[in-house]
Amino acid sequence: MPSPMSLIYYTFHPQELRSIIQWKVWHNPVHERDESKEPETLRRCFFFLDKTSRSFSAVIKELHPELLGPVCLFYLILRGLDTIEDDMTIPLETKEPILRNFQDIIEKDGWTFTENGPNEKDRQLLVEFNVVVEEFKKIKPAYQTIIKDIAKRMGNGMADYANNAEHNINGVNTIDDYELYCHYVAGLVGEGLTRLFVEGGLANAALLKRPELMESMGQFLQQVNIIRDIKEDLDDKRRFWPKEIWSKYVNQFEDLFKPENKHLALNASSEMILTALSRADDCLYYLAGIKEQSVFNFCAIPQSMAIATLDICFQNHDIFKKNVKITKGEACQLMIESTQNLQLVCDVFRKYTRKIHQKNNPHDPNFLRISMTCGKIEQFIESIFPSQKKPVNEKASPVSVEQAAKAKAEAQEAKWDMIYMGLTVFLTLFIISGSMVFIAWMAGARFDIALDQLKDQWRALMGSSGPSDSGGASGHSEL
Amino acid sequence: MSVQGPSPSLGKVLITGGCGFLGHHIVNLLVQRHPATQIAVLDLRTNLNRSSSSTVSYHDGDITDADAIKSLFAQIKPDVVIHTASANLISKNEVHYKVNVEGTQNLLKAAQEAGVKAFVYTSSASVIYNPKIELKNADETWPMVTGDDQPEYYTATKAYAETAVLEANRTPASFLTCAIRPAGIFGEGDVQLLPKMVTAFRKGQTKFQVGDNDNLFDFSYVENIAHGHLLAVQALLHTHKMLPTVPLDTERVDGEVFFLTNGQPVYFWDFARAVWHEAGDRLPLSSVWHLGQDFAFFVGGMLEWIFWILGKTPNLTRQQVKYSTFTRYYSIDKAKRKLGYSPIVDLDEGVRRGVRYILEKEEREKQKKGQ
């Protein structure tokens, strides 16, 4: 049921309402899940997908049948891992071996985990994790290998963080630490998905040769979430903004949220946004390697949402007070534009890049770097979809002064040639028709009568009745 | 093309215009990077921007004087020529022709006769600039705009000189040439771009913006351009060592032309605002007046008439409106690929250095006056 506030909002933003209606009415999934053919356990997996994921479940469920199951299970396995890592009520001795061995756990028939705290929202997934294990063992071995490899590396990365007391108390220290953290929780997902796409023949294998592209896909999404969720994370006593960045502007992390530090906090947020934005062109490059529409949609929608989220977070002090979100209407518009082709997604990126650049504050320490990054995105888009045609040099520009002078003289000469030619033609015609008239006259033609008739007709045409009878009559009698 | 670490010497290098803005930065970078190189600077007047290094010799001379050039080459016997000398932008047409075209021809002839190995010419990115067309990521395959289509005679003469330089490549077979087309150079010692922008700030013109500022523009920090020139010299010398083998087309540098910028295009007014901020401007973005492009063009035209009657130049002209609302940036992929070029100083650092230089100079002048 829409709230009264949203009713008022959409009354004044009919364009956004239109996008919502359009998306709901006209959007046809590229592929539709056929529930009737699914076993009970798989249906239960999709049930958990809906339960645990707000943003991804819709796009996953529209994936190509080849990858529908594997990607759903990949998601649930990572979600299970995350639910164990996140839960502070589980003692480290219990947690660590599970995280480090998750790649084997997902093959243990009937494995479940019931030691999550009662407040853990996704605990039921682990309570019934046996359905995930059962379905996981049914997918193609090649997909299993990929998912196990990622689960192993991510689990070990998470275990390292769980062991790292410094990280738990003070949060992320350097920018390198920050990107490493994002690598474990998102960059690896990008790698796993890319390998699944390529294995399934739905993406260009060249994507595996440019690992920085898939890394950027994950980094971009994760960094945008970290920027947007700063207040929520503070309330949960977590800090992901690296100290290396915020300490340039304030002494204590909590100082970012003090109203008197508004400008300093905004400067810190611009540096965070700059760091994320520098990945945007890689993401577009990555999307160019996707061969199948449903996979394209799956990858493009979150990226478009991310750049739109960066735009609303940029130069917006509200992120330090509450959770800032794009509106539902904007989200639907973005989904419409992200489910067609790369060029439209590039248009979305260019649009938000320019919105960000228009808000860029010249007195922000990162002002020109942000401008450079926006320029880089625009230049990249221009390089894959040129907006102008190279001028063709029809008459070949002169390459020296002599040639320029010669070209000018030639043009001049050509002009006179035209004039002479015209004169010659005219003269020839004049002589020929003149001699014909002369011969006719010699042979007795009466041009005077014809001339008079012409005059009469002219007068009649102009509407004046003049003395016209004589010429016409005498003309007849002659004949 | 694999360029090894900098060798201590590039042999004997003659730099024309070596006391000019770009030229003296090339001299400095060359001294720093290849300290054993013998450098000869040729300029009309050599009293400005001099290097203190003992490896640099200064020679007063005019490149339009063919005989003088010939004897200078006989005396120096350079291995490399870096030709940055150019006529002043505001000179008369005859001077542009004499210096840019005839001067370059004189140097080419002298270099060919003196057995020079590598000849690098500083052209200009504007040679493809047509006032009617914006340039978005333009590359070296775009046609040059010359003759009657080119409204700036200066630019036409740069294009003619560039063509002459490229045509001279491999005649004789051991003479290798290439041309560099830089765009929007700024930095320490720049007399065009930064000083004008700082003056605009002092006049209080930072409260105006013409157009919507979505137009990207290439500005290049001078040291990066100097760096690109040295990479071109190294590449030509490398090719010279392989003679008579001709490199593959994909690697070839001789006879080629390269756009050279920071590779970091930014929105035109953003660059200006970064300069103004560095010079002390603290005007908030919200206080900036936005003038529509068409409106500003009209006002500029009116002002030009009024000031013409008064015999002055207004602060806003149609040409400025056009310049500040046009998109003009280039692709430097070719320079990256073939010369191994990438900027060594980022745009923001370049702006800081360039503006600081102006402010410090002003400070020194103030102190002199105070004494």
TrEMBL record, chain A:
The keyword Cell membrane does not apply. It catalyses: 2 (2E,6E)-farnesyl diphosphate + NADH + H(+) = squalene + 2 diphosphate + NAD(+); 2 (2E,6E)-farnesyl diphosphate + NADPH + H(+) = squalene + 2 diphosphate + NADP(+). Its main location: membrane. Keywords: Lipid biosynthesis, Lipid metabolism, Membrane, Multifunctional enzyme, Steroid biosynthesis, Steroid metabolism, Sterol biosynthesis, Sterol metabolism, Transferase, Transmembrane, Transmembrane helix. The chain crosses the membrane at residues 418-441. Its EC number is 2.5.1.21. Catalyzes the condensation of 2 farnesyl pyrophosphate (FPP) moieties to form squalene. Squalene synthase; part of the gene cluster that mediates the biosynthesis of squalestatin S1 (SQS1, also known as zaragozic acid A), a heavily oxidized fungal polyketide that offers potent cholesterol lowering activity by targeting squalene synthase (SS). Catalyzes the condensation of 2 two farnesyl pyrophosphate moieties to form squalene. The presence of a gene encoding a squalene synthase supports the identification of the cluster as being responsible for SQS1 production and suggests a likely mechanism for self-resistance. This is Squalene synthase. The lineage of its organism: Eukaryota, Fungi, Dikarya, Ascomycota, Pezizomycotina.
Automatic annotation (TrEMBL), chain B:
Residues 14-284 form the 3-beta hydroxysteroid dehydrogenase/isomerase domain. It is found in: Endoplasmic reticulum membrane. Transmembrane segments: none annotated. InterPro entries: 3Beta_OHSteriod_DH/Estase, NAD(P)-bd_dom_sf. The keyword Lipid metabolism applies. Keywords: Endoplasmic reticulum, Lipid biosynthesis, Lipid metabolism, Membrane, NAD, Oxidoreductase, Steroid biosynthesis. It is a peripheral membrane protein. The keyword Cell cycle does not apply. Its main location: endoplasmic reticulum. GO terms for cellular component: endoplasmic reticulum membrane. Coiled coil: none annotated. GO terms for biological process: ergosterol biosynthetic process. GO terms for molecular function: 3-beta-hydroxysteroid dehydrogenase [NAD(P)+]/C4-decarboxylase activity. Belongs to the 3-beta-HSD family. Heterotetramer of ERG25, ERG26, ERG27 and ERG28. ERG28 acts as a scaffold to tether ERG27 and other 4,4-demethylation-related enzymes, forming a demethylation enzyme complex, in the endoplasmic reticulum. PANTHER family: DTDP-D-GLUCOSE 4,6-DEHYDRATASE-RELATED. This is Sterol-4-alpha-carboxylate 3-dehydrogenase ERG26, decarboxylating. It comes from Zopfia rhizophila CBS 207.26.
